[in-house]
Design brief:
With 215 residues, this protein is an alpha+beta fold. The protein is 40% helix and 13% strand. A four-stranded antiparallel β-sheet has the order 1-2-4-3, with helices on both faces.
Length: 215
């Protein structure tokens, strides 16, 4: 219940042993016929700084980039669209970003590529031969990392925004061609004074998405 997407971290270091622990816990996620479709690349220190610089250079160039898979529907229905808009404007409202202020939106979005100042970044890839079932398995693996992080006092932010820059990431991290970048994730200690971390996203009540039959 305390898992949430944190968008500002303290510089407090996270050591390799802690990251390895989280990944070991997460690897207990189920997967069809135990395929275990996850591959993880962990960056910190100078490697993270260099990667951030490369991504920001591409981002600030104005060149259009696109992830290799469709994350969102090509056409939203009303309920999904309204939820999407609400979280966007709730966040921008906290940050004092007015509708139409593209410059400030650009700067805020770029915070993704700084890992929101977290000391550790993770990238997740999947073999291109794998199908939808393995992507479902992957979601459980990612959730395990985020929940396990809370168990040791850390926070995370899963970031599909990184997938738009898969070519830059793959080059910087020497990711093989057969692997597709799914997303990134920031990991660290939450900044309790950052206004953006006061955002509490709403959830549909159980009765809104569940049908009970003979129970």
């Amino acid at each position: 219940m305390t898992r949430r997407s944190v968008r500002s971290f303290l510089p407090d270091p996270v050591d390799r042993e802690a990251v390895e622990h989280l990944l070991a816990v997460a690897s207990r996620a189920p997967s069809g016929t135990n395929i275990q479709p996850w591959k993880v690349y962990v960056v910190a220190g100078d490697a993270k700084v260099a990667l951030t610089a490369a991504i920001l250079e591409a981002y600030d160039s104005g060149t259009e980039y696109k992830r290799e898979y469709e994350y969102y529907p090509l056409k939203f229905n009303e309920v999904h669209l309204s939820r999407r808009r609400k979280i966007g404007w709730d966040l921008y409202g906290l940050l004092g970003i007015e509708k139409g202020d593209k410059d400030k939106m650009h700067v805020q979005h770029s915070r993704n590529f700084l890992f929101f100042d977290a000391p550790v970044g993770l990238f997740f890839t999947i073999d291109r031969e794998l199908q939808v079932g393995s992507w479902l398995d992957y979601g459980m693996f990612l959730q395990n990392i985020m929940v396990a992080a809370r168990g040791v006092g850390l926070h995370t932010c899963p970031q599909a925004a990184f997938a738009n820059y898969h070519a830059v990431i793959s080059e910087q991290l020497n990711i093989p061609e057969n692997e597709m970048v799914i997303c990134g994730m920031s990991l660290g200690v939450i900044d309790p004074d950052a206004i953006e971390n006061t955002l509490v996203t709403e959830r549909e009540p159980v009765e809104g998405f569940t049908t009970f039959i003979d129970l």
